[in-house]
Write a structure and sequence with these properties.
Layout (H helix, E strand, L loop, with lengths): L2 E11 L8 E12 L3 E5 L6 H8 L7 E6 L2 E2 L7 E4 L11 H11 L4 H14 L15 H13 L5 E5 L7 H18 L2 E6 L9
Length: 203
């Protein structure tokens, strides 16, 4: 079974020209198995994004180990997809073209990449907007397109870097519910980082 494991994971790096290393992450341990939705919660600056970047192979670790299926993560992983705070959609491309783009650069045929793009566009509830441009969508809708684009590559790991933190409170709550619905449908393995802790409504 698919498994992501960190053992005594530490990440240090230099800031600008300072000689002293900055300790971003200090000897953390965790195990995430296939199909899990794991959340890393902490205040800004505590190293959450450093952990996510290390999982994606974008940031080298200093010590300890970070393994995916017992193999050391030491380079950018093509089987991971990341969703950032900003939707980072290409403004000159329509919604459907943005979602299809990752498969375009991987060499998929036009028919196949648009077939899959429409599948995930339906999943995020935006089928009626496939011919719209990003600027015609709300912030929450743009992030749903961003999520569909990430899901379109069918990643082993879906990495979410505070994807809803820039949204207003009501939209953020709605998007969190939507994300849960999508995860239950796709059963992707998800690592989600946030500094926001939702307070359950009283019964």
């Amino acid at each position: 079974m698919f498994k992501l494991t960190a053992k005594d994971l530490s990440i240090h790096y230099h800031i600008d020209k300072q000689t002293t290393e900055f300790i971003a992450v200090d000897q953390i341990n965790f195990t995430i198995t296939q199909g899990e939705f794991a959340v890393i919660v902490g205040p800004s600056g505590c190293g959450k994004t450093s952990v996510l970047n290390a999982i994606a192979g974008l940031l080298p670790i200093t010590s300890g180990s970070l393994l995916l299926d017992d193999q050391l993560i030491d380079s950018i992983r093509k089987d991971c997809a990341m969703v950032f705070q900003s939707s980072a959609l290409m403004p000159w491309r329509k919604v459907i073209d943005n979602i299809a783009y990752p498969l375009e650069i991987r060499g998929y045929s036009r028919t196949k990449r648009y077939q899959k793009a429409r599948q995930y566009l339906r999943l995020v509830g935006l089928s009626k907007f496939e011919q719209s441009f990003p600027h015609q969508l709300s912030g929450g809708m743009q992030q749903r397109v961003n999520l569909a684009r990430a899901l379109n590559v069918e990643p082993s790991l879906l990495l979410l870097d505070e994807p809803f933190s820039a949204l207003d409170a009501l939209t953020r709550e709605y998007m969190q519910d939507e994300l849960q619905r999508i995860w239950l449908e796709t059963q992707n393995t998800v690592v989600y980082i946030t500094h926001l802790i939702a307070i359950p409504s009283p019964k």
